[in-house]
Amino acid sequence: MTHARWIRIALGYLTLQSITLGVWATLAPRNFYDSFPGAGRAWISVDGPYNEHLVRDVGALNLALTLVLVWAIVRLSREVVLVASAASIAWGVPHLLYHLTATDGLETSDIVASLGGLALFAALPFVVIVVARNHLTD
Asked: Per residue in 109-125, pLDDT tens?
């Protein structure tokens, strides 16, 4: 597999996560709050009272991140990939750090699944940056 293809796949994963959160939280904020991640689980509602404004803002910010990630996938220039990865880090690392300390109300399996997904989202952009810096040009 080429480095470019690997970068596109990694950015595609980040995009899929961001667009899923973005569309769901923006268009159906109450359902997102009550039902995320789905399959009968509820990870957000255990963390405090519902706030439509906050949920919609999180959704819209994820849609903005999606736009940056899609641009990076299409252009695949070093500069755009680095910016998209940095934006993902700016969202993913604080999000992970919060959830490392806020696990009350979640079952062990939910904690493992949640933190695993958040850790992957936070770590993957660092790997993309290393690969992009070494193998992409502008």
From this structure: 999 999 999 999 999 99
Distance CA 104, CA 84 (A): 32
The answer to whether 47 and 90 are in contact (CB under 8 A) is no
For 12, 58, 100, 122, the CA distances from 43, given in Å and listed in that order, are: 24, 15, 13, 18
Report the C-alpha gap between 72 and 66 in whole angstroms: 10
Q: Which residues of 57-96 are buried (b: 16+ CB within 10 A; e: fewer)?
A: ebbebbbebbbbbbbbbeebebebbbebbebbbebbbeeb
Q: How far apart are CA 88 and CA 86, in angstroms?
A: 5
Classified as helix, coil or strand, 37 is: strand
What are 16's two structure tokens?
């899929």
**73 token code pair:** 């996938």
For the segment 45-91, what is each residue's pLDDT rounded down to a tens digit?
998 999 999 999 999 999 999 999 999 999 999 999 999 999 999 99
What residue ranges do the domains of the chain occupy?
3-135
**Residue with tokens 């939910």, as numbered in its chain:** 110
